[in-house]
Amino acid sequence: MKMFEIQPGEYARVRSLEAEGNIRRRLLDLGLVPGTLVQNIRRSPLGDPTLYAIRGAMIALRKEEAGLVNVDKEER
Amino acid sequence: MAMNIKDIYKGLDIPADIFRDKVVKSIYAHAEETAKDVIIRENKRVDWDKKLDDFLTSPLTGFPVMLLLLGIIFWLTIAGANVPSGILSDLFFGIEDKLSALVLNAGLPAWFHGLFIQGAYRTLAWVVSVMLPPMAIFFPLFTLLEDLGYLPRVAFNLDRVFKACGTHGKQVLTMCMGFGCNAAGVISCRIIDSPREKLIAVLTNNFVPCNGRFPTLIAIAMIFMGGALVLEKSTMLATIAVIGMILIGITATLLVSLFLSKTLLRGIPSTFTLEIPPFRKPQVGKVIVRSIFDRTIFVLFRAMTVAAPAGIIIWLAANVYVGNTSILAAAAAFLDPFARAIGLDGFILMAFILGLPANEIVLPILIMAYLSTGAMVELDSIEEMGNLFLNHGWTWLTALCTMLFSLLHYPCGTTLLTIAKETKSIKWTLTAFLLPTTVAVLVCFCVAQTVRILGLV
User: Fold this and answer.
1) Distances (CA, A) of B2 to A26, B6, B11, B301
2) CA of A4 to nearest chain B CA: how many angstroms apart?
3) What pLDDT was estimated at residue B373?
4) CA-nearest residue of chain B to A22?
5) Among B3-17, B105-119, B124-138, B153-167, which stretch is predicted with the lowest mean pLDDT?
6) Which residue among A49, A75, B111, B315 is the one 20 to 30 A from B350 at the CA level?
7) Which domain, by its residues, includes A36?
8) What number of C-beta contacts closer than 8 Å exist between A and B?
9) In Å, how far are B198, B240, B241, B244, B264 from B234, measured between CA atoms?
């Protein structure tokens, strides 16, 4: 599934990135490397962007960017 | 180290992007190991950050809280600035009387008195007494919110709206900075990476009223919307009027951004990543230093350096006669027909034109221009300012159009210079001048004509 599909409160682990070039580098810089645990913290009042907990930081990503990250849902 | 990595890469014979992925992954794995060894996490305490965020960014309370905070800041600014403004102007005009007596007794010529006391000193006194108190309240309050970490949450709340206009959520942060000073707001647009979205943010920053325009908006709102002539409930109504202006400014920002991203600056929204920092306990000392010294004094000083020479020029224009009329009155008469069509009068429009160096001096110029044509009165209170305007034929429509024009017109000289430096393009600097001016003229024209046709005034 895509990263934006995880619901608020749910966890997932990064499998791969579909991005190229600059966007890929930006996502990698945020720590979204395969194997990273991410959590959907909340969605913006208007539904997008979504706030994710990534390696101890809180990062807001739009649907477009979070759609480039393939993840596996993880129950915790 | 760089050499080594290059050597390793040459020896591996794999594509560059895969190699980069591996490098980043191993860096993060290493950092994770290190962090595990040295960081102890406290898990038991109540998560206040989350509770606060639940409140500040929830669908139910996020937007009301945002408006409420904005309202509280402006209410405190307007209500709190009133008394010190009065004290300061009493003080400065008391000094003016003494200075006048001193200069005239010393046998200096009348033009010297006019040029330096009635021109430079009086304009300076106006700028300081009108601007300093609201700034000294507004900037610390705003810096407090900034220090707390609230501003990125606003960007988070509003990003979708900006995305719909083809721009970046971080534009909200540049707009927030614009409340302080549009030149600072334009510089802060550097935080937006994409050139297209950055340019849109630069060109529209001016629709957020800066601190140089707040005193104008507040003073006019107090007189006509709040009815300082009536005095009761005036701060509350003035606050509502000023917030209304801000909302109109934000609407203009969004509409013009949308227009730009559909026409001159077409393109798709670029990537959006925004880090939301944890809340921090504001450091009061830091807040005061940053808001008073870096912002208040800085902006005030800039205004003063412009106000003094402007005061001299305006005094000259009002007192040099060609035939029967002063240069000022002649220019105002020339501008009058056009100005009337957009709900202003010739003097108001001229005050805006002469106020190009700094928006702070628009109101002082206007007052001086009015005074030089009528009876000389001591202007030491907002009621007298109201009476002066009423005597020159102001209605609530004049007030509304003046506020709208102030909100939407071209940016000040400093901001234009900053835009020229940031964009390195005459074309975009010119656009930054013409675009808002066109919007201001159109809006004021439509409002004025509609109100007149409907016979509301």
Assistant:
1) 21, 6, 15, 48
2) 14
3) 57
4) B271
5) B3-17
6) B111
7) 3-74
8) 89
9) 39, 10, 10, 15, 43
In angstroms, rounded to a whole number, what is the distance separating the alpha carbons of residues B69 and B145? 9
Cα B351 to the center of its chain, rounded Å: 18
State the Cα–Cα distance between residues B369 and B367, nearest whole angstrom. Answer: 5
Number of structural domains chain A divides into: 1
CB atoms within 10 A of CB A48: 17
Q: Do A64 and B269 touch (CB under 8 A)?
A: yes
**Which residues in chain A touch residue B275, judged by CB atoms under 8 angstroms apart?**
57-60
Amino acid present at B74: F
In this structure, which amino acid lies at residue B437?
T
Q: For chain B, which residues make up each domain, given as ranges?
A: 2-41, 54-453
Residues from chain B contacting residue A45 (CB–CB below 8 Å):
57-59, 62-63, 157
Choose from B271, B275, B279, B280 for mutation: most chain A CBs within 10 A: B271
ipTM value: 0.93
CB contact under 8 A, B160 and A33: no
